[in-house]
Specification:
By secondary structure, this protein is of the alpha/beta class. The chain has a single domain, classed as 3-Layer(aba) Sandwich (Rossmann fold). It has 7 helices and 11 strands. The strands form 2 sheets. An 8-stranded mixed sheet has the order 6-7-5-4-8-9-11-10, with helices on both faces. A 3-stranded antiparallel sheet has the order 1-2-3, with no helix packed on it. Helix 1 packs across helix 2 and helix 6 packs across helix 7. The N and C termini lie far apart (43 Å). It comes from Flavobacterium gillisiae.
Length: 221
């Protein structure tokens, strides 16, 4: 499928799959979406704690990079696992302007190395952030009681409903530790029903720019 680089409304870039009319991030603002959904409503719940994060999927690396930057500000020790079956190309990587838009030129090497480091091997960035990229399908995830937080950032239900199924959310529920949290930009009723069916307690929150609502789900004990 043909992919092209587009600029979102906050000035940051993303990748669009033309055949699906689907983007890796919100057209209303890639960085704004990541900060609202995954940092404000996810990472910020764990300030000053050592946490483990699972990202579904790694994509452009934006969520991982912002988490690295924000974790450093909040004095968090983070073990980050990013799952991605179809990595972006080197050409697409150099077209991403996240370093500039985040005023993070001193960490340009970090962002680049996040993409260049080997798959299936843990890499350390600074003293308090480690990254393991796993090249696998979401259906192949079989972690148990491992993560405090999940960033669920799959392509939308409209184009890939199978990624939002009860079977997938059961894997997410099992992968979380007790009292773990899953955050996603999605807010469809069918998604909420699948989450509840596997045991999640789901709350509806204000969405990022351009989207009215989003979900946060908890594995309560």
């Amino acid at each position: 499928m043909k992919r092209e680089i587009i600029q979102t409304l906050d000035g940051s870039t993303t990748i669009q799959i033309k055949e699906w009319d689907e983007c890796y991030h919100s057209k209303h603002g890639a960085i704004q979406e990541a900060q609202h959904v995954f940092i404000k409503n996810g990472l910020s719940l764990f300030q000053n704690k050592q946490i483990s994060i699972l990202e579904i999927g790694f994509g452009t690396g934006l969520n991982a990079f912002i988490t690295f930057l924000e974790g450093r500000k909040m004095n968090q020790s983070i073990d980050y696992v990013g799952v991605e079956a179809y990595p972006i190309s080197a050409e697409e990587l150099v077209s991403m302007n996240y370093v500039e838009e985040l005023n993070a030129t001193d960490d340009k090497g970090v962002f680049e190395h996040m993409h260049q480091c080997k798959w299936e091997e843990k890499e350390t960035f600074g003293n308090d952030f480690s990254l393991t990229k796993r090249k696998q399908l979401f259906e192949e995830i079989n972690d148990l009681d491992r993560f405090d937080l999940i960033y669920f950032d799959a392509f939308g239900y409209r184009v890939q409903p199978d990624l939002w199924s009860t079977a997938i959310f059961k894997k997410m529920f099992d992968a979380l530790k007790d009292n773990g949290v899953l955050v996603t930009y999605a807010a469809r009723g069918v998604v909420k029903r699948s989450m509840i069916e596997v045991g999640f307690t789901v709350e509806k929150l204000a969405g990022p720019p351009g989207k009215r609502e989003m979900f946060r789900a908890r594995k309560l004990v």
